Amino acid sequence: MAKVKTTFFCQNCGNQYAKWQGQCNACKAWNTIVEELIQKPEKSDWKSSSVVKRSSKPLKINAIDTSSEPRLSSYDAEFNRVLGGGIVPGAVTLLGGEPGIGKSTLLLQIALTLPYKTLYVSGEESQKQIKMRAERIHASDTNCYILTETKTQHIFKQIEDLEPEVVIIDSIQTLHSDYIESSAGSISQIKECATELIKFAKETATPVLLIGHITKDGHIAGPKILEHMVDTVLQFEGDRNHVFRILRAHKNRFGSTNELGIYEMQGSGLREVTNPSELLISQKDEALSGNAIAATLEGMRPLMIEVQALVSTAVYGTPQRSATGFNAKRLNMILAVLEKRAGFRLGAKDVFLNITGGITVDDPAIDLAVVAAILSSNEDRPLQSDLCFAAEVGLSGEIRPVQRVEQRILEAEKLGFSSIFISKYNKISLKPESITIELVSKIEDIVKFIV
Ligand code: TYD
Ligand code: MG
Predict the structure, then answer these.
(1) Confidence of residue 54 (pLDDT cuts 50, 70, 90)
(2) How confident is the model at residue 182 (pLDDT cuts 50, 70, 90)?
(3) 102 CA to centre of ligand 2 in angstroms
(4) Parallel, antiparallel, or unpaired for β 260-266 and 244-252?
(5) How far is the CA of 103 from the centre of ligand 2 (A)?
(6) pLDDT average, residue stretch 407-421
(7) Strands (DSSP E) along 2-74, which ranges?
(8) Share of the chain above pLDDT 70, in %
(9) Given the CA of residue 268, which atom of ligand 1 is nearest to it?
(10) Can you say whether residue 162 is alpha, beta or left, with left for phi > 0 and alpha for psi between -120 and 50 degrees?
């Protein structure tokens, strides 16, 4: 009898070892190394000869014809945009996200509305459950087939019979292949199943969309190599308690990673949000202190975001600083700048900061709005509701320019803001009609304006 082959894999990062050890050398995690049976397949093949193989002769780059492969566009404009204009034939896309964020809902919705024959393979839910979900989404379509199966060989058998134009797998962690002995979800299984699916996608030019689970620290579960193998890695994120969901491309071989799609989770599935700014700014009759609006950019899209600050006298010895949706270290830096450069005694105050809508912003252009919100709350003096801000604050209290400022100004103008504060050092050739551009160069200018 042939010797049973085993190796040891770190379940956290996928590193391979010849023998067991307590700590993984690569990711330093403890007790994550597990023995897995591996059986090298004689031939790990997904198909019979019925599908024509694509030739792979070397060609001059000018001679390569791309026109024959138009992208498959779905009805979901946000999804198309994030992918860079639609699904590329033969491309393998991996969609990651926290449990319950809506990955299955998003891909089922796309499967139901795609005008192509689509096979949705689920290893997580039964056909009935998927039907119930589809009824919630209210899509009536006949082009989508549902299969509940986890063995890749069986899936390929069905694919050969059905010949779908798009394949969706929910999720890669539930699949297992006959060629590998270890259990579903283990590193070697994920790697093998992904390899088979990628081979299938490339040889038949069928796009494959995979759902992937993520680990506690937000990475896609399974070997890191999985992200290298696929063409596109998408991340679906958002706060489960809020309605907004953001779809981002982390890697895209066929488009930019700057685009993002915004969705709203509703009772009847995910709805595309085309005008996020209008939803993120709450309409109030009364002006309240501590609120300021930032003209930020998420990917390539301008987004007006409301920043709320609460500054109050600290009750305990150590003042509290807490930020939701904003980097806490950056908040401390801004407070230190206000303390040192503008003379505010914030060291004895509690400061709470909140970005409304449950979204997280890394755009440095939000700094000035944070400063304005803090000062407004500190002075208990409301800002006019038609002001907005877009600039970065430096350590010496200088107001620094931000990228693509004209796009931000245009968005602010479109939403009816009457003035926008930007850095004096931003070069603009734009002459907007209904919005005044206020140029500021140091933090004292803002202080003078608010206090
Ligand atoms: P799901 O797609 O199952 O998440 P994932 O596959 O990422 O684990 O989404 C689950 C959540 O979405 C669930 O908590 C309920 C919510 N939901 C709605 O609010 N409306 C809907 O129409 C659907 C289908 C789900
Ligand atoms: Mg799911």
Answers:
(1) low
(2) confident
(3) 7
(4) antiparallel
(5) 6
(6) 89
(7) 5-10, 16-17, 33-38
(8) 92
(9) 22
(10) alpha
Q: Which residue has the tokens 């962690």?
A: 173
Q: Calculate the average pLDDT of the chain.
A: 86
- Is the CB–ligand 1 distance for residue 131 below 6 Å? no
Question: What string of DSSP letters covers 133-145?
Answer: HHHHHT---SSEE
CA distances in angstroms from 335 to 271, 327, 345, 389, listed in the order given: 38, 13, 9, 18
Residue nearest to atom 10 of ligand 1 (CA): 100
Ion ligand 2: residue ranges with CB closer than 5 A: 104
> Tokens 């200088």 appear where?
398
pLDDT band at 351 (very low <50, low <70, confident <90, very high): very high
Residue 172 Cα to ligand 2 midpoint, Å, equals: 11
Atom of ligand 1 nearest to the CA of 101: 7
Helical H runs in 307-422? 328-341, 367-379, 405-414
Q: Identify the weakest region by mean pLDDT among 2-11, 97-106, 243-252, 425-434.
A: 2-11
Q: Which ligand is nearest to the CA of 96?
A: 1
Alpha helices, DSSP H, located in 171-264: 187-204, 225-229
Q: Which residue out of 121, 135, 237, 265 has the highest number of ligand 1 atoms within 8 Å of its CB and is therefore the one to mutate? A: 265
* Residue 23 CA, distance from chain mean position: 31
Average pLDDT for 41-53? 52
Q: Residue type for 169, please?
A: I
pLDDT, average across residues 416-427: 91
Strands 301-313 vs 349-355: parallel, antiparallel or unpaired = antiparallel
Residue 49: its pLDDT value, please?
A: 44
The pLDDT score that the predictor gives to residue 369 is 95
Residues 397/341, Cβ–Cβ less than 8 Å? yes
Dist CA 392 CA 254 (whole Å): 32
Residue nearest to atom 8 of ligand 1 (CA): 100
